[in-house]
Amino acid sequence: MSTPSIQPPSTYEPLNENTVVQFVKKLNYFTEDAALQVREIGDGNLNLVFHIVDESHAKSIIVKQALPYAKVVGESWPLTLERARFESSYLQKAAEYVPNLVPKVHYYDESLGLFVMDDLSSHLILRKGTIEGIQYPHLARDIGTFVAKVTFYTSDFYLHPFEKKQLVKQFINPELCKITEDLVFTDPFFDHETNDFPTEIREAVEQLWNDSELRHEVAKLKFQFLTQAEALLHGDLHTGSIFVTPESTKVIDPEFSFFGPIGFDLGQFFANIILSYLSQEAHILSSKERKQYQSYLVDTLKQTWSSFKQEFSKLWENEGNEVYTQVPGTLESFLGKVWVDAVGFAGCEVIRRTIGLAHVADLDTIQDLTQQYQLKEKALELGTYFIKNRTQITNMEQLIQVFYQE
Ligand SMILES: Nc1ncnc2c1ncn2[C@@H]1O[C@H](COP(=O)(O)OP(=O)(O)O)[C@@H](O)[C@H]1O
Ligand SMILES: CSC[C@H]1O[C@H](OP(=O)(O)O)[C@H](O)[C@@H]1O
């Protein structure tokens, strides 16, 4: 079946730096006479992002607009404008539980496929920060809390089953989920045209394609992603979807949001921190400083999982409404499932960010190509190991031991 892409409404037009000003002026956010400066700053794979500033009144705002196709590929890849609704609705839902960890949404326009949100230019995209070797002391606690609160409060453990199913309906997101189903769970494990890797690592990639045990395990993970509507997920929680300062964390870009297995958000975050860990060999040349930074990244993994577990357990015990939340052992077995899933999903994310369509700057910006290819092969090995051994890796200490060299 072909992708059921929604056609843009007849009123839709992609904005440019001139038309976005006319649009914003109608919202009465800026004063009538404000001299607005505009720049399109989108560097992601999918959308336009306009930064609009009124310097004289020290006010600014972001307009994010979906294109009727995926920007990274072009018009040959049509994509629903409804992703602006998924993104803005998720941010508003998350703001009910973690208002300090998301930008405020000010306005949503269905016909233009856009929404207006807080300007976070005072923050830095986490991936850029980790490539520069900057430490963020609150990041782990914030991300653990973020995932715990948003998932618990949208799960059957908390919501009445009618309310949960109503919310599931609002977040049925077939087109964006299909991208993940293909790009994360399928294409990298087959000789597919979307894959993108240097010929120098082809042997390692072919080894992965010929690994039937690996494919079998990925099939199980994909099926979980397709079917397990545990809670509302961000759906693309990588280090390019998080804005940071040393004091503040803001999660952005949840256009892939849907109801799925909770371990998916955690696994994506873990994978991107692990990719950062691996690539530090090329980014931080002094071995002492590199070890210090890698040890910070390892602490970030540990603390993210422990703060997730702690917060989720507290909510379960104090606010669980489902009768089985009171039954001893249920919480522990659910957290055990989330952990195993997270390890497996992390493995898929590490692999797809290395040889799939959408890469990470952590690895791709490594100038010494021999080193870049070696690290990419290491990432493939690591991802494969996580997927195949996820049920044996029972805790974070064991996961870290797989790659951590003290
Ligand atoms: N609220 C915001 N404030 C400031 N800059 C933003 C904001 N949202 C996005 N950006 C900028 O736009 C870039 C692309 O945004 P992103 O949401 O990742 O787009 P895409 O959906 O295309 O991946 C980000 O890397 C960041 O530089
Ligand atoms: C054709 S979309 C590829 C890839 O891009 C998305 O990331 P982002 O929106 O943050 O740039 C998502 O990870 C998709 O898998």
Automatic annotation (TrEMBL):
Annotated Aminoglycoside phosphotransferase domain residues: 38-270
Keyword Amino-acid biosynthesis: yes
One Pfam family matching this protein: APH
tRNA processing in keyword set: no
EC number: 2.7.1.100
Residues binding ATP, per UniProt: 47, 64, 253-255
Pathway: Amino-acid biosynthesis; L-methionine biosynthesis via salvage pathway; S-methyl-5-thio-alpha-D-ribose 1-phosphate from S-methyl-5'-thioadenosine (hydrolase route): step 2/2
Residues the record lists as binding substrate: 236, 352
UniProt keyword annotations, A-Z: Amino-acid biosynthesis, ATP-binding, Kinase, Methionine biosynthesis, Nucleotide-binding, Transferase
Catalyzed reactions per annotation: 5-(methylsulfanyl)-D-ribose + ATP = 5-(methylsulfanyl)-alpha-D-ribose 1-phosphate + ADP + H(+)
GO biological process: L-methionine salvage from methylthioadenosine
GO MF entries: ATP binding; S-methyl-5-thioribose kinase activity
TM spans (from-to): none
Family: Belongs to the methylthioribose kinase family.
Functional summary from the UniProt entry: Catalyzes the phosphorylation of methylthioribose into methylthioribose-1-phosphate.
Record text on subunit structure and interactions: Homodimer.
Protein name: Methylthioribose kinase
